[in-house]
Write a structure and sequence with these properties.
Strand content: 15-25%
CATH architecture of the largest domain: Alpha-Beta Complex
Shape: globular
Low-confidence stretches: none
CATH class of the largest domain: Alpha Beta
Structural class: alpha/beta
Largest sheet: 7 strands, mixed
Length: 272
């Protein structure tokens, strides 16, 4: 049930509230204020851990997956769940295929010991990250966070990324960091916070600002055509002026192979 109230508010803040009204998804001040308050209070704050695709491609050894690799006595997925809970995310969807879900469940079960609710979404097949994410179509009704399943992101300021997205009118807001190897990431041409172009793993590029496997989005993202977020959807959103960026001073740590665990184990001891 909704109640009508009267409030007094700073003129500058009111202008910022009005700036997120797009007359499509947010049609008036009441909806804008309700959205901002809900996000500030963490009500129904949702995160998605994306770990879809062929299971063999997600292994770091014959018997170990990236997402359940053990690093200093904690599994990678445990680092992710603990960080998300600290940032106020209480509902977490994990998208993966059957064997990987089984392996993850052995570590975190239903999430209750971490103070969260885990919803497992089993993927049968996909041709890319967008196909995986679209399994949640109709199940998420508000802004949501997506993190890829092979990263540790304890030093990333998720709250700032989240707030940047809420203030803007984009369909998605990507976390961006500098990269010495643009041919291994999606790189962006950006003006202010607006991403003008997105190119996935260019053969050659003089742009050293790239997408860092974390983003916040609106449910409408899942309505766009294309199997891959990076190859198909993000470039289209950029052309339409619907893709935003948030530059992060701190970077995520990737676990793609066994050697990566040895390299990052010292860096993350303080999070144990």
């Amino acid at each position: 049930m909704k109640k009508k109230i009267s409030i007094t508010i700073n003129e500058k803040i009111l202008g910022e509230i009005d700036s997120i009204i797009d007359n499509i998804y947010i049609r008036n001040r009441s909806q804008a204020i309700e959205l901002l308050v809900n996000n500030a209070l963490g009500e129904n704050k949702i995160a998605v851990i994306l770990s879809g695709g062929p299971e063999e491609a997600l292994k770091i050894s014959q018997n170990e997956y990236r997402i359940t690799a053990k690093i200093n006595n904690l599994h990678l997925i445990e680092f992710a769940i603990k960080k998300l809970r600290e940032d106020g995310f209480k509902t977490i969807y994990i998208i993966a295929r059957h064997e990987l879900i089984t392996d993850i469940f052995k570590v975190i079960q239903n999430g209750s010991k971490f103070g969260v609710t885990i919803e497992y979404v089993e993927e049968q097949k996909s041709n890319g990250t967008a196909d995986s994410l679209k399994l949640l179509r109709g199940r998420i009704k508000s802004s949501f966070l997506v993190v890829y399943g092979d990263i540790i992101f304890n030093e990333v300021n998720i709250e700032e990324l989240w707030n940047t997205h809420i203030r803007k009118k984009g369909i998605a807001t990507l976390m961006l960091t500098t990269t010495p190897t643009p041919n291994k990431k999606g790189v962006v041409k950006i003006e202010g916070s607006r991403i003008l172009e997105f190119e996935q793993k260019p053969v050659a590029s003089d742009i050293y600002l790239g997408f860092s496997s974390i983003f916040v989005a609106q449910p409408e993202l899942m309505e766009y055509n294309g199997a891959s977020l990076e190859e198909n959807i993000f470039p289209v959103l950029a052309k339409k002026g619907l893709l935003e960026g948030h530059l992060s001073a701190n970077k995520e740590l990737h676990v793609h192979k066994k050697e990566d665990i040895l390299q990052i184990s010292e860096k993350i001891k303080k999070y144990l």
